Amino acid sequence: MADDDQEEGAEAAAPKGKRKLIIMGGAAALVLLLAGGGWFFFMRGPAKEVQAVAPPPKPPVFLDVPEVLVNLSNAPGERVQYLKVRVVLEVKDQPLSAQIAPTMPRVTDLFQTYLRELRPADLNGSVGLFRLKEELTRRVNAAISPNQVNAVLFKEIVIQ
């Protein structure tokens, strides 16, 4: 009987040993697979890409707007303050600049009427100037539609 118990223990141990062997073999295969994948992605040289050479972008064209001097809107009894602004319009190319030039009186008129409505508090800080720049750009684009300017750039701003 003792021999029978030993044979049964040996038979039971054999499948467990095979199972461990299969698990260890699978783990080794997984490690080799991961190492190969890591080498493929990290160790191989960079892919040789042919990049098309883009032509250099054209420099923008700047169009001067006549200087605008207006008095700011104040409450009655307050000291009168003046705003002097010199701006430049940034346009895409020279032909667009030539198309905008005839409408410059309209642009100047829009600037004058808008700037006269401003109060000194509207121009405080960089936020006030950024808002002013956006509003002037919007008004210029409305005046010269269907053409568009890229930006309105300040050359000089004086509040006195």
From TrEMBL:
Transmembrane segments: 21-42
Topology within the bilayer: Single-pass membrane protein
InterPro entries on file: FliL
GO CC annotation: bacterial-type flagellum basal body; plasma membrane
Localization terms from the record: Cell inner membrane; Cell membrane
Main location: membrane
This protein's UniProt keywords: Cell inner membrane, Cell membrane, Cell projection, Chemotaxis, Cilium, Flagellar rotation, Flagellum, Membrane, Transmembrane, Transmembrane helix
Family in the record: Belongs to the FliL family.
Official protein name in the record: Flagellar protein FliL
Species per Swiss-Prot/TrEMBL record: Afipia massiliensis
